[in-house]
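3.2 Worked example (two chains)
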Amino acid sequence: MSKEEFPSEKDLPQEDQEKQAKAAEADKAGVKDDKKVKDDKEEAAKLADVELDQLKAEVAALTQKNKDLEDKYLRSQAEIQNAQRRYSKERADLVKYESQRLGKDILSSVDNLERALQVKADDEASRQLKKGIEMTLEGLVRALKDNGIEEIKADGEKFDPTLHQAVQSVPAENDDQKGHVVQVLQKGYVYKDRTLRPAMVVVAQ
């Protein structure tokens, strides 16, 4: 068929021309729709990324908060346990050393009785009185011992600052005597594993 045999667009019927125009517009609209779909997808992807970042930030914040709360909980538990241990120890010490104050108060009476016994008894009445003082002193010393209070060994012992209080020093007679107690001025006492009152002593230097 020759070129002359093909009808030109203007030779087509009006109806066919309208169909071609609509088809062309549909093609253009399809291109626009594809671009819009692509743009919408890209926008949705960006929004999804933003939401994902926000969720990650929230998860990180909640994780840190949980870690902080767990740390505070563990610290609180440790403090409670320490307080319970301190309370138990203090209670045990109160029970263990319940006679400490009474023992300290009695020691001054023991000192007075010992000083009274140093007075010379010249007559029968004085000797009887001295005998009564001795019996009283023995009873007190026994009661102290029964409650865990005992005299500190000091005379001739090596000086121990945890048990002895040096109030005076004298020249040593020999090398073996150096650093040793040569005289006890006041008796000292221990209560179980505590020094209730150190012995007041003279030490050879």
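3.2.1 Second chain
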Amino acid sequence: MSMIRDLRAAVRPSLRPSLRKNSAPHSGYDTTRDPSASSAVVDCAVYRDGSRLEGTTAPTPHKAMLQVREEGGFAWIGLHEPTEEEFAGIAREFGLHPLAVEDAVHAHQRPKLERYDDTLFTVFKTIHYVEHAELTATSEVVETGEVMCFTGRDFVITVRHGGQGSLRALRHRLQDDPELLAKGPSAVLHAIADHVVDGYIAVAEAVQDDIDEVEIDVFSTPAKGGRRGSDAGRIYQLKREVLEFKRAVSPLLRPMQLLSERPMRLIDPDIQKYFRDVADHLARVQEEVLGFDELLNSILQANLAQATVTQNEDMRKITSWAAIIAVPTMICGVYGMNFDYMPELEWRYGYPLVLGVIGAVCFSIHRILKRNGWL
């Protein structure tokens, strides 16, 4: 059982790269393949007794499968964004179902687990946190990709879409643990699932920091000249990105539960119990993402309420000044009617008296409104 005890350490890096602002963008991620390359195959290898069989040249998928049938072991073929023509030969060689092949080529699939005869077809959504110096109303927070995995008795075929989510480092870590790889294709499937969910955990931590930042900005005292309600665009954009995150996490929970609870011929019993650990971590991430969504709803409502309060305060100030200005407007309007007989019209001190009355009334109204908090 020592091999099983070391399973988690084998498929996870000892130090996860930081996703915060001090790390380089797309650190640890592959770009797309060279456009001049004639094949979508990123890596192709045969493993027997947990060790990679090295040759003078890398085997083609056809030669790898022939070698497996003659000598045993299993083949692991990695592809990146294959076309229908590039994938057609591999599909025929390994007897892959046309529906699964279509999903793997065209991508944009919902996370799922399907069984076709003696092949398991699993779809994972990979999530990458996009670094940004400042969160704005147009900032991209998460970037998604896809990893499809065909798992058979003696082969694993991984199809990756997107410029991130490379499995190269994962393959190297597995190759450093021959005892684990000896468990066959199911060990690779578990390692991929664990790798993807670990990525979810790291991204959730980074998104939590962004939400905390927005929450502090919304509930802090606005700077002089600043206005509440100006963060609505940032909150809404962050909510959209959390929804994208949710679409990757939530549908995957049921497939992980099936892999951990339902006996399957293609899954080694010693490996199956460790899918339970992946399902537990995924459930925790799902709870966090649902919490993010609810928290952002509350923050958005609070922000809109603050904007409404600010508008009400502005309207009260406008109304107060309008009331003050109405006094001289009314008095001057009366004396501007040009009647011959008007109070104090011929009096020497009539003009200063009217100005004094206007000033006194305006001052009194200003004091009353100020004391009541309208100004």
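3.3 Remarks
The mean pLDDT is 82.
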